[in-house]
Amino acid sequence: RTTMKSLRFISAEAFVSNAEFARKSLGAVAHDLFPLLFKASYLLEQGEVIHDLVENWPLFDFNMGKLLGATRDYQEDLSHRTCSVCLESCLTGLRDYVLNQSSPYMKKLRVVDLTGIKDVEVQFCKCKKTMGRWARTQLLSKLCSELLVYLQQARCNPGTFEISINVLIDLFVTERNYELVVQALLKKCSCPLKICCVAFRSDNLTLQKFFYIIKLTDPSLLRKLEIVHNVHLEMEHLEMLFNSIHFPLLMSLTLPARTFNVRRFTAADEQMLTNVGEKMGEMTQLTELSMSFSILTGRIQKLLSPLKTPLKMLDVSNCSLNHADMAFLSNSFHANHLEALDLSGHNIPELYPSTFFKLLSHCSSVLRSLTLEDCNIQDTHVNMLILGLSSCQKLQEFKFIGNPLSSQALKHLFTFLCELPMLKNVEFPVPRDCYPTGITYPIDDASLCRFDHQKYERVAEELNLILLQANRDDVKASTPLFGSYDAAVQETNNELGAYLIKSFKETLEKFTTSFNKMS
């Protein structure tokens, strides 16, 4: 499918395709044509032209999401192209914008917004090299530090020190880039490029380092906080975080696995949970909450009832919820506003079928994403599931891998899914009849790939044929056995793997030492 281009855009492409000519001619280009030339250069991956456009940017703001998004001249959205050549050219061009010795009064740029860049699985850029969120964090921090060193050592135009540009970015910090980011944040006041953290993700960090860097980011600006893998944050640390730092603009909060474990709660822990809930209630912008793999049995009401703003996204996968938790959710004011819901890892048909369908009916008018992985949904439940989903006319994404469904049941379900007009993405399980007889659910990792692959391919073809015959080739159907694509994990998987091996080794050493002492 080709996207129509205006004559202006075609002309812009022709202009930037000759990099040498374009770079020499920029001085004669009207200021309002810079955004058009930028998008054309990005599409053609003309790194040198991109660099020079940014270095000489004549406007007050530079917003990547708007510049690369759908425009009148070219409707295609390029913001999901995290092309390494283009992004590196952008950031080095920004550094050179500061260093360029042309008259300072010509420098109007005040805000650079890099938050509109989207990291996706499939890249269309010709160079096939991407620059993810972690690498963007790394490069911007490095350039800020280098810029300061250069300004301190070189004789610069006095006007250079008056330049002040807020660079809005989604930071991603791990042990490997921690020191570099800390240095850039510490020197923010004296650097012309001022890192403004809008979203912060942390993986593989000690608590001490996490607490230190989160204070440096200026939490009053933070809209999204993700504390994900290998940050050993428990409820007492979360209470400390909320007591010591205010997050007035926070809209989205992701907590690591095992933040809460009610099975070992004392009276003091119950009070701590109440305090955490009250602190979250003070975050009046909070609409997205992810607490997967915590044990929250019977405590959802205590945690969520203080919230004054209805949640639009809730992930309580593998949180051992009981009937009281589900009843609270289905009757709460959150239910009518939930656009994304993840209840994976709960035996819904056995524990609370009617309460779940009540919750589903309440959120059906707005629900866009539903995830029910490993929920013990069997063939006998499919008709009831179809009935529940039939009112979810805005559903765009449905994920239900890990459920013991037969090929026949999947075909029946897919025939119905064709009727959901907004549906774009379906993640379905390997059919039960592709596995050896007697397989038990949830399937352990060792047995996950031990199925009849040829039979699965045949069934997958039949399911896609159902979509095609209903003219629904806009729906992507897949079976990601080891979970959906996560751009952040993909980018840092080497570091994550090394951390896990190190943790396993340390645990083994402690066990050996204890065993030797006993002996």
Automatic annotation (TrEMBL):
InterPro entries: LRR_dom_sf, LRRC14/PRAME. SUPFAM superfamilies: RNI-like. Coiled coil: none annotated. The keyword Repeat applies. The gene is Lrrc14b. Keywords: Leucine-rich repeat, Repeat. Belongs to the PRAME family. LRRC14 subfamily. It comes from Donacobius atricapilla. PANTHER family: LEUCINE-RICH REPEAT-CONTAINING PROTEIN 14B, SIMILAR TO PREFERENTIALLY EXPRESSED ANTIGEN IN MELANOMA-LIKE 3. GO terms for cellular component: cytoplasm. This is Leucine-rich repeat-containing protein 14B.
